[in-house]
Amino acid sequence: MIKDIFITSSSYIIPNHYGWENLKGIKLNFDSIGNLSSGFYKTNKNKTLFCKIFVNDLVNLNENEKKLKKKIKTIIKNLIEIIENRLKNTNSPIIIFVSSFLNQNIFEYISKNLIIEELHNNLIQDLNKLRSKYNNIYSLDLNKVFQNEGFDKIYDSRNFYLANCRLSSRGIEILSECLNKIIKKIYLPSKKVLVLDCDNTLWGGIIGEDGIKSILIGQDGIGKAFLDFQKNIKRLLDKGVILCIASKNNHADVLNVFKKHQEMQLKEKDIISFKVNWREKHLNLLEISKDLDIGLDSMVFWDDNPLERQKMRLALPDVFTVEPEQDVIYWPDQLNKLELFSNFKITDEDKKKQYQYKIRSKFVEGKNNARNEITYLKKIKLKVKKINLLKGNISRASQMTQKTNQFNLSTKRYSILDIQKIDNNKNNRISLFQISDIYGDHGIVGMFILKEKNKNTIFIDTFLLSCRVLGRYLETWMLYSIKKKYGKNVDIYAEYISTEKNILAKEFLENHNFKLVKKNKKTSLYKIKGYNINSKVMKIYD
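The structure corresponding to this sequence follows.
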């Protein structure tokens, strides 16, 4: 996580204001006001930079309108050049908030081509262009947030004339809240699984008592609210969210609704795991977590029943249990505003997540029913493909370092720019691994980063594997590919940095004859030489 932030702004934002308490645990370094360029140039490039731009500070509205219009392009050009210059020289996050306000009556809005609005919109467009080029810039049109509160409550003329601060106390609070959310999203992975109840959650009524014809979905009023709630759930599929059901009900009744009710937006194919029974729901969530090999802290639970929610919070505090609004008519908006599943960028792998977990379920079921593991793995015709780092997959490479926790030796988090810099070093090797079997293509699921210290020594900087393909010995194949390339006499060192979740990675090293050579608090250095591959395991791959 970020330890300190350098803050620069076009006008004063009161450093000692209580609103900044949202950023507890982070040291805030405030620049002198009004000097945006100095903040971008003088700040240590390894520090996170936050810049707040009030568009009103950039122009003098008393000037001639024609002159101002000519100035707009120059103002924006200079700002973008300053920002891009820093982006080219740092991998650290740059967070930029832009806002503006207009104190006009309705007739002026109608009759005038407003300079402030034009400058604001053009600046936002150019920042969006930078976001498409660089992975470490995060820009926000703060007007979109402020308008929900009301500009009269956000801006304060008294603060401006007495302290050169354009914002009210509430404005500073919202500013720091947004900054805190973005910082957390940069460093903490999004939730992966949404677990839903059924009765009075996905539809109105109780299916076991009311029957399929009487439950409410799609009709006017409450029925339409349930319909829209389902539509918004459906949109989460495109973000790679996995949908599961945990309902105290008769399985056949619930399945019948998914299959036969014409207004159901969610279909059976959209649900990865149906846990419809009379067991306690926290037990079902434990099973879902085990079946999908996904941590409880990646799961979100939505249930209309306050008793079930309370039970879940007590039994599984790591699961995020949503507190729904009392009235279902607010649920569609509440789900839209829920930031737990949001990402700055959605990759092609995210869009395939639902499909990939479905084929994983088929694999797990087949493996559990098989008498002999190796025989089963041979039968499903595993194929692995080693892929070089390319422009088209570098985003996926970065994403895996950010999100993979269980089978990840070091859990080092790399941005796209980080990976580009690593790849530009001729002594480094980055390889990605794609796997498929009779169930389908699992996509790019493995990765290692090697650093060649000399002709006889290799250091494994990163070695990771997606949890959804565990059980196929792909990690063994990846290690074998290193030995095959460099030969039997090369020393291979691997750094293991322990976390609460990555014990699997340590067990992998120890089970593959790596020997501990050095250890401190959380970091252990392992070494292997003359590695003999398990021929039985390697025969499972074509």
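The first strand starts at residue 4 and ends at 9.
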